[in-house]
Every structure is written in structure tokens, then in C-alpha cells.
Amino acid sequence: MLPENDGRLDPPALFPNPVDEVWLEIGFGGGEHLADNAEKHPGTGLIGCEPFVNGVVKLLGEIDERGLTNVRIRDEDATQLLAALPDASLARVYLLYPDPWPKRRQRKRRFVSDASLAEIARVLRPGGLFRFATDIDDYAGWTLVRAARCASLRWTAARAADWLTPFPGWPGTRYEAKAKGAGRRPSYLTFERI
């Protein structure tokens, strides 16, 4: 439940046990990545946003099976959640394989926009990371252009291998396996809050 009257959430207070930091995953799909992170980082609170019930059900199954207590789920769009988060309240934000809305007339529906990146930068603490993965070259380029316009984010890649190599500790996702099976090569972009 979000606070009323434009109030702000207290992200660490969402979890039953104290957490060192909080991460957000927008559109967690089946929850494989989120559950893996929650298990590997028990001192971190993870918030996942996913509007599709099948993905929420799959993640709930993982939470139950693994006995995870450091996960909170929002089963609606992430935009309102971002607006309710305080400045510099998150250590990481993940957006993995979002819907690319490939047709030109649909692109305005893409989650990555100047406004959404400004909100992500606002909620990240200095040095916090925004990680984006896609198998659609056009969406990778779209994201790079908009991130370059966001003065608070810096792309961390130093060489080509940096955006072709999965993030450290990457467990992979079902969608990624499907994309690779279809011959599409994923891009892994990391931006730091400056």
C-alpha cells in the first residue's frame, strides 16, 4: 500500500528484519533473478514490481520454497512506487528484458524514458546502480540515448565486452534463454548514480 497525499515510503521499514540496503526490480517476470538475489543477499531488502499475476504467482512459489523473508511485491505498475520512494533510498534498480514495444508508434509506451530515468536517478543513492538488460538492439540504443541525457547517471562501460557480459552473479532468466535460443544477443547496461 502506498502512502496517501503524496507521502513517502520508508523502504527499510517494509521488511520484517533489518536490512542494510534496498534494491528494486521493475517487471520481474517469473522472479528468477529477484529470488536468486534475495537468497544470495539476505541482508538486502528486495522490492519487485510486476503487474502480471502469473509472474507474481511464480515468485511467491520461489519465496515459499526458499523461505525468503527479504522480498516485498507490488503487483502494479512501478511508476507510482518510484514516485513514493524517498530521494537516495535505493542501492540498485533492475529493469531486465522489458517489453520493447517494437513498432515505431508503440515506442512511447516503453518504460525507459527521460522521465523514468530521472525518477530512477532520484531514488538511487550516490554510487547506486541502475542495471538494464535487453535482447533488442534498438531498445539498448534507445536506453543509452536517454541515459546520456540524464545528468545524474553515468554509463560504466569501458569496453565493448562490458555491455555484452552478464552482470556479476547473473543467474540468467527464462526470457534470456528464450532470446538466446532465437539467436538474439543480450546487452547488459550498467549506469551509476553520480
From TrEMBL:
Substrate binds at residues 103, 135, 173-176. Keywords: Methyltransferase, S-adenosyl-L-methionine, Transferase, tRNA processing. S-adenosyl-L-methionine binds at residues 25, 50, 77, 99. SUPFAM superfamilies: S-adenosyl-L-methionine-dependent methyltransferases (SSF53335). Gene3D superfamilies: Vaccinia Virus protein VP39. It catalyses: guanosine(46) in tRNA + S-adenosyl-L-methionine = N(7)-methylguanosine(46) in tRNA + S-adenosyl-L-homocysteine. It comes from the Bacteria. PROSITE patterns: SAM_MT_TRMB. Pfam families: Methyltransf_4. Pathway: tRNA modification; N(7)-methylguanine-tRNA biosynthesis. Its EC number is 2.1.1.33. The keyword Zinc-finger does not apply. Belongs to the class I-like SAM-binding methyltransferase superfamily. TrmB family. Catalyzes the formation of N(7)-methylguanine at position 46 (m7G46) in tRNA. HAMAP family: tRNA_methyltr_TrmB (MF_01057). This is tRNA (guanine-N(7)-)-methyltransferase. It comes from Methylobacterium thuringiense. The lineage of its organism: Bacteria, Pseudomonadati, Pseudomonadota, Alphaproteobacteria, Hyphomicrobiales. The gene is trmB.
